[in-house]
Each structure stands twice: as structure tokens, then as C-alpha cells.
Design goal:
By secondary structure, this protein is an alpha+beta fold. It has one domain: OB fold (Dihydrolipoamide Acetyltransferase, E2P). 19% of the residues lie in helices and 46% in strands. The protein is built from one helix and five strands, in the order αβββββ. The protein has a five-stranded antiparallel beta sheet with strand order 3-2-1-4-5, with no helix packed on it. The longest helix has 18 residues. The protein is elongated. The chain starts with a helix and ends with a strand. The model has no long low-confidence stretch (mean pLDDT 80).
Length: 97
């Protein structure tokens, strides 16, 4: 009987730990700036994918000065805003102007 209780407690603890939301790891995208606005950067990656990344509420020292056709590396994380998952830029590095 004790074994059953210990096993139940162990399974409950493991279930609680695994159900906790894990923080998303930063993603890095390399590409050419296709479009840029005050709050978004749209990249075309080397694979030909189009990626839209939000720059809203970012530190202008780490995200700024990006122009069309710049080659950039963008570090971003996924965030949920109003029930939608978006990519939020953390840092933008201009590789080539």
C-alpha cells in the first residue's frame, strides 16, 4: 500500500513539473530586410522564408537603424499577445548595408 502511495505522489510531482510552461529559447534569423516599419521588420531568409518580427517596445540601442536590403541577424523570442503568438526582436545586428 505504501508503494502505491509513493508511486502516486511521484507521478503527481512529475506531472506538475512537466506541465509547467518552459521559457522559449531565443531564435536567430539571418536574412535580407524586405520591409521595415516603426514596429516590424520583415526578412527574407536564406531559405526563402518570409519572417515578420515585431520591434514594438524594444530598446532602440539594440534594435534600430535598419534599412531596406540590409543583411541582418535578428535574435528574437516568441511571445503571446492577445491570444496570438508573435516573434519579438531582442537584438538586431546589421551584417552588411
Amino acid at each position: 500500500m505504501k508503494t502505491f502511495i509513493y508511486l502516486s505522489m511521484f507521478i503527481s510531482v512529475i506531472g506538475c513539473i512537466s506541465s509547467c510552461k518552459q521559457e522559449d529559447q531565443p531564435q536567430v534569423f539571418n536574412g535580407i530586410v524586405y520591409d521595415v516599419t516603426m514596429s516590424n521588420i520583415t526578412l527574407i531568409t536564406s531559405k526563402g522564408d518570409t519572417v515578420n518580427i515585431s520591434t514594438m517596445d524594444d530598446n532602440t540601442n539594440k534594435v534600430g537603424g535598419v534599412l531596406l536590403d540590409d543583411s541582418v541577424e535578428v535574435t528574437c523570442v516568441k511571445e503571446e499577445i492577445e491570444g496570438r503568438e508573435i516573434l519579438q526582436a531582442i537584438e538586431v545586428t546589421i551584417i552588411k548595408k
